[in-house]
């Protein structure tokens, strides 16, 4: 159901940065994703566009939604906006997310931002972009403020019922994220459960620690053991917290709301974007909450641009794929 590519739409080279970040970043924006789309997505796209003069947008959705963005852009700046129009008749929001992901796969954009259905985005991303070897279920990784700094939490909504090998792979992905994006030399990876005593938790949490302890994690990371909910707020026990997507999603939404009302722990003002990066696929995919505000979506677009400019996904893949050569890290496909 993808419409004709608008005249003048330029293709991305898809070449990652080496020693210097590229000046521009083209972000495919899913205009129909989210509870309050398209109005809130239009607002977020315009905020991001105005904040970053090197940002280019590929607007994916109906003519009407794209037109709302174009109407607010100064004529001199319209060469920074392209459209991928889709027919409004019988158009499902998931179709727009798939088209935006296909645009990245086809080199028409460098990254994608969507607040649409998480399951549809994850499946479509895996099909359009491909998964890294050994990754069965790509997780969503979010960043939370903690009293000690920033903490990576995954999964936050993709794999709601993983097995132990899947959690082990997610530990590797999270370690690579912390090393590349947060530039940590030796990330500490913890497994979230209800108690640090051995044998606590459900069947999955009881099975995973032995597997985690035997992992050779990438990027100099190490397994820090079992952690509890208060450790996520404090951030002094682990830099990366691994859990299933159900628990992670509940925890993320609860803490984000608490921090928005009461302020982040430690009284800091540097709040991470309320957006998650999909790990384990060959492309930059950023997912926002369905109830995201215009400010949240603008921050998500800026985050996607930053990840592209740093070639973060390619760097994480290099860490994880090199680590998988270790005989200690065999995970069933």
Describe this structure in words.
This protein has two domains: 24-135 and 280-310, Isopropylmalate Dehydrogenase (3-Layer(aba) Sandwich); 140-272, 3-Layer(aba) Sandwich (Isopropylmalate Dehydrogenase), CATH 3.40.718.10. With 333 residues, it is an alpha/beta fold. Helix 3 (93-105) runs parallel beside helix 4 (118-129). An eleven-stranded mixed β-sheet has the order 3-2-1-4-11-10-5-6-9-7-8, sandwiched between helices. It contains ten helices and eleven strands. Strand 5 (140-146) and strand 6 form a beta hairpin. The two termini are 32 Å apart. The protein is globular, with a radius of gyration of 20 Å. Residues 1-19 and 326-333 have low confidence and may be disordered. Helix content is 39%, strand content 17%. It has helices at residues 39-51, 63-72, 93-105, 118-129, 164-181, 203-213, 229-234, 245-262, 294-309, 312-323; strands spanning 25-30, 55-61, 81-85, 111-114, 140-146, 149-154, 188-192, 222-227, 240-242, 275-278, 284-288. The longest helix has 18 residues, at 164-181.
């Amino acid at each position: 159901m993808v419409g004709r590519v608008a005249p003048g739409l330029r293709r991305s080279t898809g070449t990652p940065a080496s020693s210097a970040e590229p000046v521009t970043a083209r972000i495919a924006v899913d205009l129909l994703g989210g509870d309050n789309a398209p109005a809130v997505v239009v607002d977020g796209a315009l905020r991001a566009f105005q904040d970053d003069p090197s940002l280019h947008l590929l607007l994916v959705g109906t003519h009407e939604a794209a037109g709302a963005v174009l109407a607010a852009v100064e004529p001199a700046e319209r060469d920074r906006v392209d459209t991928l129009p889709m027919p409004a008749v019988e158009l499902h929001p998931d179709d727009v997310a798939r088209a935006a992901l296909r645009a990245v796969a086809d080199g028409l954009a460098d990254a994608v931002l969507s607040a649409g259905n998480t399951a549809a985005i994850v499946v479509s991303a895996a099909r359009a972009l491909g998964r890294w070897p050994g990754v069965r279920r790509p997780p969503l990784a979010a960043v939370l403020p903690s009293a000690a700094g920033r903490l990576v939490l995954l999964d936050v909504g993709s794999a709601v019922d993983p097995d132990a090998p899947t959690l082990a792979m997610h530990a590797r992905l999270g370690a690579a994220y912390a090393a590349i994006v947060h530039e940590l030399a030796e990330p500490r990876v913890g497994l979230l459960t209800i108690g640090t005593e051995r044998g606590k938790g459900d069947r999955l949490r009881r099975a995973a620690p032995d597997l985690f302890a035997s992992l050779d994690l990438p990027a100099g990371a190490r397994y820090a053991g079992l952690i509890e909910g208060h450790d996520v707020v404090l951030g002094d026990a682990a830099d990366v917290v691994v859990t299933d997507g159900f628990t992670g999603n509940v925890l993320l939404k609860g803490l984000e709301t608490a921090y928005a009302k009461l302020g982040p722990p430690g009284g800091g003002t540097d709040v991470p974007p309320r957006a998650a990066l999909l790990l384990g696929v060959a492309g930059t995919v950023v997912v926002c909450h369905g109830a995201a505000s215009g400010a949240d979506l603008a921050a998500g677009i800026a985050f996607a641009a930053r990840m592209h400019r740093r070639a973060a996904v390619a760097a994480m893949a290099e860490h994880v794929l090199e680590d998988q050569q270790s005989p200690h890290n065999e995970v069933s496909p």
